[in-house]
Each structure stands twice: as C-alpha cells, then as structure tokens.
Amino acid sequence: MKGGGQGEVQSRDLEGLEGKSVTLTGWIDSFRQLGKITFVIMGDPEGNYQAVAREEMARKIVQVPRQSYIKIWGPVARGQGKASPFEVRIEGFEVINSADTVLPIDPASKVNSELTTRVNNRPLDLRVPEERAVFLTRAKAMQIIREFLTGSGFVEVDTPKIIATASEGGAELFKFDYFGRPAYLAQSPQLYKEELVLSLGKVFEIAHYFRAEKSNTVKHLNEFTSVDIEAAMAMRDDAMKLIEGLVREMYRGLEVNYAMPERFPVYTYEDIVNHAGLKFGDDLSSEVLNDFGRGKGYYFIVDWPISLKPFYTMPKGDALSESFDLMYGGLEIASGGQRIHQHEMLYSRLKASGLDPESFSEHLKAYRWGMPPHSGWGMGLDRLLMVLMNRENIREVVLYPRDSRHLAP
Description:
A hairpin with a 2-residue loop joins strand 18 (323-328) and strand 19. This protein has two domains: 8-97, CATH 2.40.50.140; 124-397, BirA Bifunctional Protein, domain 2, CATH 3.30.930. The protein is an alpha+beta fold. It has helices spanning 55-61, 115-120, 122-125, 129-151, 190-200, 236-253, 269-276, 286-293, 343-352, 361-364, 381-388; strands at 8-9, 21-34, 37-44, 47-54, 69-78, 86-89, 92-97, 155-156, 162-163, 175-178, 181-185, 202-210, 223-232, 266-268, 298-302, 315-316, 320-321, 323-328, 331-339, 374-380.
C-alpha cells in the first residue's frame, strides 16, 4: 500500500490540508462504530484526531488492537468529532507494530488508573492527552527558565553529582563506595556554584539531586530536579527579586491564569512563630506552615535564625540570617539568601555547625582567592510544577519518580 501525496504529516497540520490526501502515523486510541462506518480516534505526539473508515476498510481496521501503531492515508475533510474539527477519510492503512490486546492501563478510558499503575507504565500513560500535556509543559518550563536566566546574564554550568563531602552537612545523603573511598550522591550544587562565582560571576544549573529521606509524602522524592543560581555582588533581596521575576515569567510563558499580587508578600520567621505560639529557634513543621499558609499564594519568609540555616548562610546580627524561603501556601518552593564570602567567618561557621573544616579544605581554599559577596537560591522545579498545573502529588509531574517504594522502571 502507498501513502498520500502530501508526505507524512501530524495531527497539527490537518487544518491547512483540507481536501488534500495525506499520510499520518500514530496509535489507535479507540473505535466508535456506527453502521458500516467506523470512527477511529487516532493519537500522535501532537494530539488526537478522528479518522473515518467505511465498509471493508472498517471491517479490517477494527481487527487491529487498540494502541497499535499504524500508518493511515486518505483525504482530509471537515468533521464533527470532538478530537479535532478535521478528519481523515481512510483509503488505506498499514500496521507498523501491533499492541497487546490486554494492556496495564487504558489511555482511552474515562476512569483514571491508580497513580502507581500509571507511574509504572509511564510511556503508555503519556498516550492520555492530559498526561502528555503535563510533560510537554514541563519541557517548556525548563526552556523558559533557561531563557530567563541566560537573558539575565547567567551562565549555565553542570557540576558533579558524585561528591566527597556533604554539601550542606546533615546525614540525608546516599553513601556508596567509590573505588575504596566513601562518596555521596550530591544533594545540592551549593559549594560548586559558590566557587564558580569567583570567575563566572552569575551561574545557574538545572539538574537532578538526591536526598536519602525515607518519607513518602505527596511533596517529597529521593531524586528531584532543582534549579540553582548564584550571583556575585548580589544581596538577599536581589536573589528574592530574581526568583519572583522567574515565577512570574513562567506563569506568563506557560499561559497559566493566576491573580499575581503586585509583589509577593514578605513575612518574618518571627511572624510565624508568634502565629503558631512557638518560641524563637523552633523549626517550622509542615503542620505549622500549612496552617500559616492556608489561603495564601506565593510569599516569602525571611530572617530565619542562623541556627536553622546551613553553615554557608550569612549571619544577620547575632541570631538571624540573611536568608529566605519562597512558599506557596504551606509548600516550600525555594530556599536561598546571601552567603558568607570571607574565609575566616566561613571557617568559624563550619565549626559552630559541628562540621570539621578540614573536610571542606578544598572548598575553603577558594575563599582565599578574592571571593566576592554573593547570593543565590535553589528552587524545587517539581514542586513549582505541581502548583502551576494544579496537581496534588509530585509524582504526577515527574516522569519516573524515585522514592523509597519506586526504583523501577
């Protein structure tokens, strides 16, 4: 069998080809039979559309298992299908690869499969147009981030994910044997991006990082995507202004309707402590943040106690820090602030945090080479996309989520 005269096209091209013969490839989503006519809902990466088969052609095509990958050809005409205003009148088809008759999920079903089932069969799950749209949006979001940051003078870098020392202290790292030496999977590019401002000035990275927390919540993963920036000669407020601008740009670029305030509200750590009836120095639990954030959109929390922030955070007076968290409701989206740039102060903060400065000697040496003041942040892309796309579980916006229960596929 031979295809049509227009060469192979996709569903997005049909509008401009009315009356012309075309060839398309894609999968059979579903059938609807009406007498001698069979309506075939076809899918391809661009969307779904309707094709029409009659008589003998109809009898043949319904024998092909749904989700099989096929080639069809015929003229384009206006139709009345819900999938597309244009349809293809099938003159011939070829089965490229037949699907099993029993599949783990049915992309054409109006009943949603369990999330775990969908995650375990993600390529098939993406044949559901709404789920495919999530990851097309994710791809566009990363493009917007790159364009925004490079347009703001940042240089994209890529730092190691196998490290010898915990970036931020703490014990939430995956440890493994590296040719007879202990090594860890990176939980952050923090130390590297700070070192790089020494000569590159403004850097950013979009990459996967790892935390060995055994928590199975709707907002935690053990492998996550982080957007990190660091900028020389930037103060805390500069970093806050930058991330607010980026969030606004993502809403604009993704055409997501959201009533943004003129500026994101700013609350202090002490505001929340007083609201919750806690004492200064207490950490803010999820319950406290959820209660404080109820009904709120995006806002900042500033002036955290230095005791609750990593060793590299610039102190503000005796007890506070030049830090911030960006929140949405009770969900932390990003954390950042001004960093320490003097060698002696950083050395002292390591000791005060219970860390051995000798373990950080390779990092500390850069602070003897004229390190400029600098600020930055790390933003959880997966969490932000949860909010942007109004999803309840972070696993819905991650192709292959990794947590304590998911290692395959």
